Amino acid sequence: MPRTSGSKSKKTVRPAKERVRAVLTELARLYPDAACTLDHKGPLQLVVATILSAQCTDERVNKVTPALFARFPRAIDYAEADIAELEEMIRSTGFFRNKAKSIKGLGAKLVEEHNSRVPQTLEELVKLPGVGRKTANVVLGDAFDTPGITVDTHVGRLSRRLGFTSQKDAVKAEFELMEIIPQPEWTTFSHRMILHGRKVCLSRKPKCGECTLAALCPSAEL
Questions:
Q1: I need a surface site. Which of 34, 73, 141, 152 has the fewest CB within 10 A?
Q2: Binding residue per annotation — 208?
Q3: CB 137 within 8 A of CB 144
Q4: Residues 73 and 116 in one domain
Q5: Number of independent structural domains in the chain
Q6: Which residues of the sequence carry a binding annotation for [4Fe-4S] cluster (predicted)?
Q7: pLDDT tens readout for residues 133-173
Q8: pLDDT of residue 14
Q9: CA distance linking residue 26 with residue 49, whole number of Å
Q10: CA angle 11, 12, 17 (to 5 degrees)
Q11: Phi/psi zone of residue 219: left (φ > 0), alpha (ψ -120 to 50 degrees), beta?
């Protein structure tokens, strides 16, 4: 059946537990070592890199961050940074003015309210400049080993195609996914879906013919 994910009349039926488990098992087989692809050492570097990754590839971010992290190793360094210098260092990641403002504000908030440390709860993380639920879940999962579902464009797109959610709003999709994905697997699920989205389930031309999830996917073009 042709893929009709763009059809307004298509309804997404809540998936059976067996199908969800089968998808998770196959993703684990395909990407057993899936992990965060943003280069970082510690939570501060990760939160900054994740802010930079908005509307930008991880590959590009990883080219920018070595010099950035060397120049600004601590939260107070970001807080006291010259905004023009910061903007220039991250210019190639796009939206550099807004990102620089967020990162400088992040440093200031960490110094003023968190003893220069990145907080370890979602509630505190989302109060930081430039940090929404997506960034918070990345930091929780990869810096603090606290499971979180990161709904980026890949996770959202694949989840809709697989019939795991019908939501286009990332937060609403996150909450629906939290109901059907076992909590211990939230972080690895996100990483594996992102990798599958980059390699196989592409946005415009998904490679359904070579996708081993096709038999489980109601949107597959077979």
A1: 73
A2: yes
A3: no
A4: yes
A5: 2
A6: 201, 208, 211, 217
A7: 999 999 999 999 999 999 999 999 999 999 999 999 999 99
A8: 53
A9: 29
A10: 150
A11: alpha
